[in-house]
Amino acid sequence: MNQILDEQAPATAIQRADYSAPAWWVDSVDLCFDLDPIKTRVLNKMKLRRNTDLPVQALRLDGEELNLARVLVNGQGSTFKMDGNQLVLSNLPDECELEIFTTTCPSKNTKLMGLYVSNDSFFTQCEAEGFRRITYFLDRPDVMAMYSVTLRADKAKYPVLLSNGNLVDSGDLEGGRHFAKWVDPHKKPCYLFALVAGQLVCREQRITTRAGKDHTLQIYVRSGDLDKTEHAMNSLIHSVAWDEARFGLPLDLERFMIVATSDFNMGAMENKGLNIFNTKYVLASQATATDVDFSNIESVVGHEYFHNWTGNRITCRDWFQLSLKEGLTVFRDQEFSTDLAGTASARAVKRIEDVRVLRTNQFPEDAGPMAHPVRPDSYVEISNFYTVTIYEKGAEVVRMYQTLVGRAGFEKGITLYFERHDGNAVTCDDFAQAIADANPSSVLPSLLPQFKRWYSQAGTPRVSAQGVFDAASQTYTLTFSQHCAATPGQTEKLPFVIPVVLGLLDANGNDLPLQLEGQDEIHTGSQRLVLTEASQSFCFTGVNAEPVPSILRGLSAPVVLAFDYSDAQLLHLLAHDSDPFNRWEAGQRLAVNRATAAINDSSANPAALDAAYIDAMRAVLRHPTLDAAFKELVLTLPSEVYLAEQLTVVDPQRVHTVRQAMREQLAIELKADWETTYAATQETGAYTPDAVSSGKRALCGMALTHLCLAAVAEGNDQWPAIALQRFKNASNMTDRFNALSALVGSGHALAIPALEEFHALFKNEALVLDKWFALQVTAPDVGGNTLPNVKKLMKHSDFSLRNPNRARSVISSYCQANPAGFHRLDAAGYQFWSERVLELDAINPQVAARLARALDRWSKLAEPYRTNARQAIARVAAKSGLSKDTQEVVTRALAD
């Protein structure tokens, strides 16, 4: 295997330590596009000046898959040379005007990076390195320039012509063509450039901000989709208002535009003033979108709008600083959605949902071959580092700043950050220093050098805690120790700064007053401790009976907590903890303990749930004041992926068998309560995607799912028949899809006609069909039938490998969201994976590299899965001509 890899000449890694400022600056860019799907002509006129802080160097411009026709310097022909994909010009004057004329073929651009065609319209995607596929340029984020853009195209085919900034001129041209000229009033890096041209319709809204300024908001979609844009527009309006109210950051453009396309590698892109979105995060109606879709749209619209300041106005010096904008902006969109949630319970539900993503996706990444710090030290392909570590863990690092300096202190830090760096390309260190300098009396300034280990050290720290109660002295001492396991390239880890928010519960479930030994201050409810050493102890006084500690409330740091809770203590926390997160966490720990015990004991009856656990879940279901959304979260068992991460050696089939048995046991033993719950939650009135109504629909769907499971286990058709009727009569997609999922998940025969009817109803709704495909490939693997069904669905007339959404809905859903169906004893799932990775790599390397990560954790698998998985990875790695994207992933996987 090593010999094959050696022959394939691995791509060179780029090192953060090698950063140097650009040898040239670009002051302005004047672009003119003659748009044609076969041959688009791009005229690029730039004003450049030498960076006099550096030794004299040639100008090296990046380009990829371009046809170069002309190069002029100050209007005159110039000599140049090509060095790989770079255009090199030497002996230039210190200031000059450079003109470059190129052509490109957007219709053949299946990578969806740079300028491409989707459904007869033009779109761009330039982050991270797509602009070099449009014209030769200094394609790096620290080169910021002023842009003017002229678009020319056939007026009948492309009546809408959009780019960044303000429309300053437009009109007709000869031959049925027309033009539009856009000027961006803000300088930007080239990765924020965008253009769109096509047959589009627009929803427009005029708003007046708190500052009293008028702005135009626009959402462009294909004809027929306009009625699905109201929620996205409302989300955008809420985002503008929230950012100005919370952080004092107003909309800085006359108009702000969103455009939706069905062919898009990512969720959305924050191009300055012209955001381009995957349709998945724009289009929604109650007939076609679930409550989760509505929530995701609100979050993603907010995220991209918030980038207007944290990412656009202040951008990254280099791509190693990616979390500077992404981690910060994820934190901001989480805070936005939390604030909009309203009630304390809804806010808690949002936090729990965010933590589930972190634990299910990021913690495994931290423990696998692709582990990397929040600020990586090297990469081969930057597209591979748009990861949950950069985004979700990066957001947790930002959240810890707020925990350490307080909400008001954090807002002061953001204000100082913009005062210092607006309009510049900066680093994570600049952000950290601004937060610290704005809060000189907090603990952060003295801890900042150590705190920044969160940026440089990979891995998830493990915090072990032990509690000792001394009745004689009425004290309770908590001793914490922290450790972080070795990760690729990092064997020794220094202690992190870890804020630990905790409370102590008495026998009645009340929070005790907290007073640390030697301190006068008494805290009510929760107290924040700060761990900075490998081991530390904290002694609380005035404790007259042994308490139950509630540690890491709200998950105050992205760590794994090891505390030897007894079942009685966990049940106490589940019943009484004032912190909703730790209340939910207690239920998860109870379930994990039972699942792992059953998985590890081969002689154990898979029905792993004892009476105490069943009674606790019954109490949650019957609780008179708990919100429905919170109940649904507590009653959802830990996923198979999360359970696998708790094991040293993983047998995917055993994990699935045990978890499925637990689900069926909950279904049967709580059947009467599920019936009561279903009856109480099936009607929510007129559809609205608010937190309370969404929570009721989620719990109702869960009840129906369990009732169908119980019915199939007992050989009873009553509840599947009810589910089918609910499917037919549903007035919204959430209820309809919940009913369909209940039928498919239970394996009842009525699922077949329901799936057929669903397709007939929504055959013209691409996003709904994505759900239809994904539901089938993630269904329980009965008799090994899932993989044949996946292959069958890939031959369906509605399947297209070239559409990222559709490819993900079938292939990625199967390989990454159906462990039992994918990890087959005959290795057929792995063979399928390797074939699809190679097939996609030739079309769209970004999608292929994401799919390649389905086997990141192969080394934890039991035999024969482990050997078979490694062989599959090796087959992909041995392929000649593999993209940098996929090569980096599989090479790192094999080194695990």
TrEMBL record:
GO terms for biological process: proteolysis. One of its GO terms (molecular function) is metallopeptidase activity. Its cofactor is Zn(2+). Keywords: Aminopeptidase, Hydrolase, Metal-binding, Metalloprotease, Protease, Zinc. Its EC number is 3.4.11.2. Residues 93-192 form the Aminopeptidase N-like N-terminal domain. InterPro entries: Aminopeptidase_N-like_N, Aminopeptidase_N-like_N_sf, PepN_Ig-like_sf, Peptidase_M1, Peptidase_M1_dom, Peptidase_M1_pepN, Peptidase_M1_pepN_C, Peptidase_M1_pepN_C_sf. Pfam families: DUF3458, DUF3458_C, Peptidase_M1, Peptidase_M1_N. It is an enzyme of class 3 (hydrolase). Belongs to the peptidase M1 family. This is Aminopeptidase N.
